[in-house]
Write a structure and sequence with these properties.
The complex is a heterodimer. Chain A is an alpha+beta fold. Chain A has one domain: HPr-like (Histidine-containing Protein, Chain: A, 2-Layer Sandwich). Chain A is built from 3 helices and 4 strands, in the order βαββαβα. Chain A has a 4-stranded antiparallel sheet, covered by helices on one side. In chain A, β2 and β3 form a beta hairpin. Chain A is globular. By secondary structure, chain B is an alpha/beta fold. Helices cover 46% and strands 14% of the residues of chain B. The longest helix of chain B has 23 residues. The chains are: A alpha+beta, B alpha/beta. At the A-B interface, α1 and α2 of A face α2, α3, α4 and α5 of B. Chain A: Keywords: Cytoplasm, Phosphotransferase system, Transferase. Chain A: It holds the Pfam family PTS-HPr. Chain A: One of its GO terms (cellular component) is cytoplasm. Chain A: It is found in: Cytoplasm.
Chain lengths: 89, 568
C-alpha cells in the first residue's frame, strides 16, 4: 500500500473547487484512494462530502493512501494537486 | 404552482412594489418554485431495495440537471453548479440514505435526514465549509422533489429572456442566475435592504420587491417592470413597453457621456463610493469608475466561524479586499454582530430585542480582543496594499464610545477613525460624537429603523422605513449640522445614497460622500452634474418642508431638473 503526506496549499483549505478537483482526480484513477488527517479515520477520496467533512484547512497535513497498480503514480499526481493553491488559479 | 393557474391574462394591470435596482425590463414570467419538504404523513417503505433504487435515481437526476444547467452559465456559476452536481453523486449520501431507509423512514425523509447528517458536520466546521451547507440543502430539496415527482425547487430551466418572479430569492439562487437571460427580478417579500435587492443592484438587473400577489402571476405572462419607480405592469400594451424602453435608452445615452469623480454642476466634490461585503464584491467594484469603498461590511469574516478568526486569516482576506483599491479609499466597518446573528465564539446569550441590544461597538466593548485582532489585521493589510484605509465603528451612541474606539484604532497604527451615525441620539449630538473622530457615516437604513421604531426585517412596515420620511430627513439634517460645526466630513452609506433624487437632498443637507451599490453610481453622478449646491439645498428644504414621505418625494421630483426626472 502506497502512502504520502502532503500539506494543503489552497488558501481556502480543501473545500469547494479544490475539493471538487481533488475528488475528480481521485475518481479518475479508478483506484481505492483514501484521505485522512494524521491519526484520524480515513475517508473515501472519491466522496466530495467525505473530503469536505475532513475540514482540512490551509497549511494542515493530510495522509493519502492507495492500493493497486499505479498507486504510487496516482498519489504523486494527487500530492502535486494539493501542493498548489487551486483556488488562486 | 403554474399548472393550477389560468392561462395568460390579457387584461393589462398595473401594481406597485418597491423599486430596488434601477432600469426597466419586459419579458415573460418565470416562477421560482418554493423549497420542497418531505410530507409529514410519509410512512415506512415496503420494499427497501426498490426504495433505495428510487433514492439513487433521484440523486442522479439532480446531478444530471445541475450539469445540464452548468453548460448554460458563465465560468463562476459553472464551477458552483459542477461542484454541487458532485455532491448529488456522492456515494456517502446514498449510503446515509440507505441507513435511514433501514431505520424505517420513507424515501423523502431518508433523503432529507441523510443531507442533514452532513449539513450538521459542515456547520460544526464553520468558515468556508459552513458556506457549502446551502448547496447541500439545495441538493436535498431537489432530490426530495424528484423522489416525490413534484417540480424541482428554485429557478426552472428557461431559454428565452425572462423576468424571474419569486416569494424571495436565496443568495445562492441569485448568484447563479444567468445575466443574459434574466432581464428582471420581482419578489413578493423582501425589502429595500434584502439580499435580493442588494444582489440585483450589484448584478445590474432591474428589480422590484414587495409586489403583492407576485407569486400568483401565471408563468409565461408578459410583464413590464421599472426598477426605479417600483411599477409593474402585467400584460402591458406595447405603447407602455416602448415608452419605458425609450426612457431606458435615453438614460443609457445620458449616462454614457459622464465619468470620473462626483461633482455638482458648480464643481463641489461629492465622492461616489461602493458598498461591498466581500472579496468578490471588491474585485468587481474595483474595476468600476468610482472613487473607492464607502462601506465594507466585515461580518462575512466571522459569521460562519466556530472560533475567532486569527489575525493572519483576517489579514489575508483584507488584503484581497484592499488590493483592487490601491490609492483609493476603503472605509471598513468593524464587526457588526448581535443576538440576531450571533457569533459561535462570542455569543452573549439571547436577547428580547436584538436590534436594541449588545451589538456593534457594544459587543466590541465586551470583547475588545476581537476588535483588536481585527484592527491589527486591517493595519497590516492596509500597509501592504497601499489602499487609503479608514475604519469606522457601528452602533455608536455617545461621545465616550466614539473616543474609546478612536483610541483603539490609533493604538493599532491606523490613521483614520470614524463612526457610523445610525442611532438617533448620536445623530442629534453629532457635534460631540464626531468631535472625537475623523469622520462620520450615516447608516440611513438603521437610522430610519431607530427613528421610526420600525423593524427593518418587518416587510409590512416598509412605508415607515421609507427614506423620504420627513422625520428621518430631519434627523439626517441635524447630524449634518453637527458635523459641520465639528468640522468633520459626513457621508451616507445606506441604500438611500443610491437614489438619485434623495442623493441630491442628502448633498443639500451637507453630505460630502455617497456610498451605494456600484450599479447605482452612474445615475447619481448624472444627478449631481445637473444641480448646483444651492439647488441641492433648495431641494433639501423642499423635502424637509413636506408633511409626508410621498409629499417630500413629489416636491423634490417636481423641483429637480427635468433633464434628470425625464430619465427616471
Amino acid at each position: 500500500m502506497a502512502t504520502r503526506t502532503v500539506t494543503i496549499a489552497s488558501s481556502v483549505g480543501l473545500h469547494a473547487r479544490p475539493a471538487a478537483l481533488f475528488v475528480e482526480a481521485a475518481s479518475a484513477s479508478g483506484l481505492d484512494v483514501e484521505i485522512a488527517k494524521p491519526g484520524e479515520d480515513p475517508v473515501d477520496a472519491t466522496s466530495i462530502l467525505g473530503v469536505m467533512a475532513l475540514g482540512a484547512r490551509h497549511g494542515e497535513e493530510v495522509v493519502l493512501t492507495a492500493d493497486g497498480d499505479g498507486a504510487d503514480e496516482t498519489l504523486d499526481s494527487l500530492v502535486e494537486l494539493l501542493s498548489r493553491d487551486l483556488d488562486a488559479e | 404552482m403554474a399548472e393550477s393557474e389560468t392561462p395568460s391574462q390579457t387584461q393589462s394591470e398595473t401594481r406597485h412594489g418597491i423599486g430596488v435596482s434601477p432600469g426597466t425590463a419586459y419579458g415573460p414570467v418565470v416562477q421560482v418554485a418554493p423549497p420542497v419538504r418531505p410530507p409529514a404523513d410519509e410512512g415506512a417503505v415496503d420494499d427497501e431495495e426498490a426504495a433505495l433504487a428510487d433514492v439513487r435515481a433521484a440523486f442522479e437526476s439532480v446531478a444530471v440537471s445541475l450539469e445540464e444547467r452548468a453548460t448554460r452559465v458563465d465560468d463562476t456559476a459553472q464551477q458552483i453548479l459542477k461542484a454541487t452536481a458532485l455532491i448529488a453523486r456522492d456515494k456517502g449520501l446514498v449510503k446515509a440514505a440507505a441507513k435511514e431507509l433501514a431505520a424505517g423512514h420513507g424515501r423523502a425523509h431518508s433523503i432529507a435526514n441523510a443531507v442533514e447528517t452532513y449539513a450538521a458536520q459542515f456547520e460544526a466546521l464553520g468558515g468556508y465549509f459552513a458556506e457549502r451547507v446551502a448547496d447541500l440543502r439545495d441538493v436535498g430539496s431537489r432530490a426530495v422533489a424528484a423522489v416525490l415527482g413534484v417540480p424541482a425547487p428554485g429557478v426552472p430551466p428557461f431559454t428565452e429572456p425572462s423576468v424571474i418572479v419569486a416569494e424571495d430569492l436565496a443568495p445562492a439562487e441569485t448568484a447563479t442566475l444567468d445575466r443574459r437571460l434574466v432581464v428582471g427580478i420581482v419578489t413578493e417579500a423582501g425589502g429595500r435592504t434584502s439580499h435580493t435587492a442588494i444582489l440585483a443592484a450589484q448584478m445590474g438587473i432591474p428589480a422590484v420587491v414587495q409586489l403583492a400577489g407576485a407569486t400568483e402571476i401565471a408563468a409565461g405572462t408578459p410583464i413590464a417592470l421599472d426598477g426605479d419607480t417600483g411599477e409593474v405592469t402585467i400584460a402591458p400594451d406595447m405603447e407602455l413597453v416602448t415608452a419605458q424602453r425609450e426612457r431606458a435608452a435615453r438614460r443609457a445615452e445620458a449616462l454614457s457621456h459622464l465619468s470620473g469623480p462626483g461633482r455638482t454642476s458648480d464643481g463641489a466634490e461629492v465622492a461616489l463610493l461602493a458598498n461591498i461585503g466581500g472579496v468578490e464584491d471588491a474585485v468587481a467594484a474595483g474595476a468600476q469608475d468610482l472613487e473607492g469603498v464607502g462601506l465594507f461590511r466585515t461580518e462575512f469574516v466571522y459569521l460562519s466561524a466556530t472560533k475567532a478568526p486569527t489575525v493572519e486569516e483576517q489579514t489575508e482576506i483584507y488584503r484581497g479586499v484592499f488590493a483592487p483599491f490601491e490609492g483609493r479609499r476603503v472605509v471598513v466597518r468593524t464587526l457588526d454582530a448581535g443576538a440576531d446573528k450571533p457569533l459561535k465564539f462570542a455569543d452573549l446569550g439571547p436577547e428580547e430585542n436584538p436590534a436594541l441590544g449588545r451589538r456593534g461597538l457594544r459587543l466590541s466593548a465586551e470583547r475588545p480582543d476581537l476588535l483588536d485582532a481585527q484592527l491589527e489585521a486591517l493595519a497590516v493589510a492596509a500597509r501592504e496594499t497601499g489602499a487609503d484605509v479608514r475604519v469606522m465603528a457601528p452602533m455608536v451612541a455617545t461621545a465616550e464610545e466614539a473616543a474609546w474606539f478612536a483610541r483603539r484604532v490609533r493604538e493599532n497604527g491606523l490613521p483614520k477613525a470614524g463612526v457610523m451615525i445610525e442611532v438617533p441620539g448620536a445623530a442629534l449630538r453629532a457635534h460631540d460624537v464626531l468631535g472625537e473622530v475623523d469622520f462620520g457615516s450615516l447608516g440611513t437604513n438603521d437610522l430610519a429603523q431607530y427613528t421610526m421604531a420600525a423593524d427593518r426585517m418587518q416587510g409590512a412596515l416598509s412605508d415607515l422605513l421609507d427614506p423620504w420620511q420627513p422625520g428621518v430627513l430631519d434627523v439626517v439634517g441635524l447630524a449634518c449640522e453637527g458635523a459641520a460645526r465639528a468640522e468633520r466630513p459626513i457621508g451616507v452609506c445606506g441604500e438611500s445614497a443610491g437614489d438619485p433624487l434623495l442623493a441630491l437632498v442628502l448633498v443639500g443637507l451637507g453630505v460630502s460622500s455617497l456610498s451605494m451599490a456600484p450599479s447605482k453610481v452612474p445615475v447619481v453622478r448624472l444627478a449631481l452634474s445637473l444641480h448646483s449646491v444651492a439647488e441641492c439645498q433648495a431641494l433639501a428644504a423642499a423635502a424637509r418642508g413636506a408633511r409626508t414621505a410621498i409629499d417630500a418625494l413629489t416636491a423634490v421630483r417636481e423641483a429637480a431638473r427635468t433633464e434628470l426626472t425625464d430619465l427616471l
